[in-house]
Structures are given as C-alpha cells and as structure tokens.
Amino acid sequence: MKESKEVEVKGLLKVFDDPKNNLKVMAVDHIDFTVKAGSLTTILGPSGCGKTTILRMIAGFEKPDEGEIFLGKERMNDLTPHKRDMSMVFQSYSLFPHYNVFDNVAYGLKLKRYPKDEIHNKVMKMLDLVNLSGMENRMTNQLSGGEQQRVAIARALVVEPRLLLFDEPLSVLDSKLRFMLCSEMRAILKKVGTTTLYVTNNQEEALSIADEIIVMKSGKIIQTGTPQEIYYRPSHEFVADFVGETNFLEVPVIKNDDTSTTVDLYGKNVSIYDPVSRTQGTTCTVILRPEAANVCEQGFLPCEVMESCFMGAYQLYVVKVIDKLIKVKEYNPFNKLIYHKGDQAYLEFSEECLHILSSN
Length: 360
What we know:
Helices cover about 25% and strands about 35% of the residues. It contains 8 helices and 20 strands. The chain has 2 domains: about 5-240, 3-Layer(aba) Sandwich (Rossmann fold); about 250-355, CATH 2.40.50.140. Helix 2 (about 100-110) crosses helix 3 and helix 2 packs parallel to helix 4 (about 145-160). The chain is α+β, with helices and mostly antiparallel strands. The strands form 4 sheets. It has a 6-stranded mixed sheet with strand order 6-7-8-3-9-10, sandwiched between helices. Strands 13-12-11-14-20 form a 5-stranded antiparallel sheet, with no helix packed on it. The model has no long low-confidence stretch (mean pLDDT about 90).
C-alpha cells in the first residue's frame, strides 16, 4: 500500500440554489478539520447537515465556493476526481451487475492498465483480505448485502488510494449485519492503514468504527473528539441528545472554581469537573446517561417509580425526583429486584458520571 496522507480542510463553504423557493441554502458553512494520516474519522450528523456534500467536495464531484482541500501538502481544489488518488464507496455499492466479483474488484486496475498477472495477484490478495476467497467467479446478484459491501471495499482498496471515502455504506443493512460489518471494516482498514473519512447518520456505527468523530449540524461542526469524548463529555446539548440517550438536568450553580462547579442537584450539593467559569446563582445543564444510574433500596436521591418496562437486555425505568422525570436503563435485570410503578426507591449513580455542558 502507498503511504497514507493527512487530509486538511480549511474554510470550506458550499451554497446551493433552491429554485423552488428562490433561496440560497448553506450546505457547508466555513468548516475546518484535519484527518490524521492512517486514521479512521467519521462525520456524523442528521440528514441534510452537509456531511455528504463535504465528501463530494473532497472527492472532486462538487466544487467548493470557498476554502481549500489538501491531501498531504498537495492542494486538491483544481484537480479532477481521477487525479486525486482517492477511492469512494457509495451507499448503493455501485457494483457492475454484469461482472463477476473478480472483474468488479479488478475494474480500477484495468483502467490503469496494470499487467494481467499483477491484476490477478492484487485482486486475489484483496479478496483474501476481505474474506471473499473462493468467490471470485460469483456474480454480484448471488451475494448477500454484506458480501456486496466487501466487494465494494475490495474494489476501492485494490487501487491503493491515499484516501478512502465512505458515504453511508451500511445504511441499507439491518442492525445486526451493520454491527458485524463495522467490526470487520475497522479491522480491514486498520490493517491496510489507509486514511479514511466515513460519513454516517448512525450513532452506534460512528462510535464503533471511528478513531475520531466530527459531529455536524446545519452545515457547521459542533464538536470533534474521540468516541469516548463525544459520548461521555459532549460539549453541546445537540451532541448529547443526538449521540445516545441522556437526561438533561437544569440545576443552580452554588460555587465555581478553576476546575469544578458545585451545583444543587435536587437538594444534594455535588461538585463536578468543569473548566468553564460560571456565576453563582445561575443555572447550568448537567447530563446523566440512563445506563449510568440504578434504582435501588438505598441511594443518593429518593424517587418514585413512574414507569417500569422489561426490554430484554435491560429494565427501563422512568423515575420522578421531586418534579423531574429521569430515565434509567438497568442492564442484565435477570434475578435482580424489579421495581414497579408507584414504588418508592432511590436513584443511585457515581458523581463521576455527571457532566456539565459547556454550551446549549
């Protein structure tokens, strides 16, 4: 494989005309980000946030209105797509139905006029990498969705791109197959070491596959961080709500110092790590993930069980603390004490699981 290159995007802007309403639509709003060489970065956000437009500008299918795109130290803006040394895997896979697996994977090598023996060796090696050895003579309509996805990955990788782009490649698959393929794809991509930019609107997919996640909303980057940082330490209410489930607790600030804020959490004073300067007497938003709390006989906050529902892997509770409804997920409820609607209990959690949003 060729040496992977860093991707750098500076001040990228894309505006589309909406002829139906005679308006300008800001698809991508002056964004900056870097994808480290050899890393797997995910752009995550709801439909219409601009993530696919970014991918298409990097690939050369759309021209930015402003901004620059670099692969390594080379500026990409004026290069046509076939000169950018990138491969793209689409949502629809875009396999050739009249070609077998071998010819689909070999297509890019044939366009580059590689010798026949070298094409054969490269294709067979790539099919082995994606666990499709022995299937080279099958037609693509004889393959499962997961196998078709592997063919698309093999075809993209066999030409040894310096950058690999994925546009929601698993969105048509069911959740179990998507999870399995996420694991396989991550293993394959880390093994070959190709710099990868991966677009999805599926939170679990992004968390499971990425080294770093870029969260977008309405054409802007809201937060960038590792999957753990995005999930446990979201900076913005949108990120906390979009990535997983959470409880938002509006509580008053009692005291603030350089590294922590003490809040009044329903009658209990709690000190939470917080580098943001806050004024005593104002309110802040504290988040608590449902799986970080438990309902028990003794605990931190007295509560009343308002809902109790068995969900298989977990028992779902909604409890009321004073006037606030809080969702709780207790995993592996087998042989545990189950509380029912109307029961009096306590809400228990570690204070380390609390996080204060820096902005709303």
